[in-house]
Amino acid sequence: GESDEVEDEIEDEEDEAAPVQRRRRKFVYGKDKYKWCLETPETRGRRSDSLRLHLPAAEGNSLNASNPYESWNVLFTDEMLELILKWTNAEIERHNIDNNANNAEAATFAPLSINELKAFIGLLYYQGVNKNNHLNLTEMWSNEFGSNLYRTVMSEKRF
């Protein structure tokens, strides 16, 4: 058990509004020589900034969004999507030139449209929401494990 020895300790407290005060605090030592205070510490009037509650709220352009699609467009602006599309299509073109793509590959590696890009990003969201990140592509598009949504939006090869 704990030692019955109680030690008094004088503690100085500083407060901006009051002069320096001295008060006695009682302590008990455990058998492992850990020092336990017998009184709860006094609470101070100020709260740390890190303890203040900050609730999330819409700001800027997101205040004008009235549906999920408009909210998504705040995150992915048309300019951003056009830039992604430009460099994705440049990479597709480079791949086709480097690999002398035949007609069968040409359909798979055709330039991407803005709608296909949005569909691709949407499938990534869907995969995350449904926690399908453990599935490989074949399983995602399979009739047994996958969702009809994947097969409806685009082919596995196009994805």
TrEMBL record:
Acidic residues bias spans:
1-17
Domain of life according to the entry: Eukaryota
Query: Matching InterPro entries, A to Z?
Result: PGBD
Chain segments carrying region Disordered: 1-21
**Domain PiggyBac transposable element-derived protein intervals:** 67-159
Protein name, as recorded: PiggyBac transposable element-derived protein domain-containing protein
What organism is this sequence from?
Solenopsis invicta (Red imported fire ant)
